[in-house]
Amino acid sequence: MALNYKRASHFWSRYELAGTDSSTRTSPPDSIFLDRKIESFFVCGGESALSGGNTGIRANLKVLHQIQKGEEEEAPKTPRERHLLKTEPSADITFVNHKGLELFAGLQALAIVSESSEVNSPVTTSRITYSPVTLFAPRAGLIRRGNSWSGGFYYNHWRESTRSFEKVSGDGSSLSGTSYVLIPSSYGIVGAFNYQQLYFEFDIGSVHAGDGGERTEDGNLVQDDYLRAWFSMYLPSSLGGFRSALAWQSISYADNAYASPESIAMTSLRLDYMSGTPDDGFYTGIIFAYGTGGTDITEYKARFRSQALAFSLGLFIPI
Question: Is the peptide bond before 29 cis (omega within 30 degrees of 0)?
Answer without folding.
Answer: yes
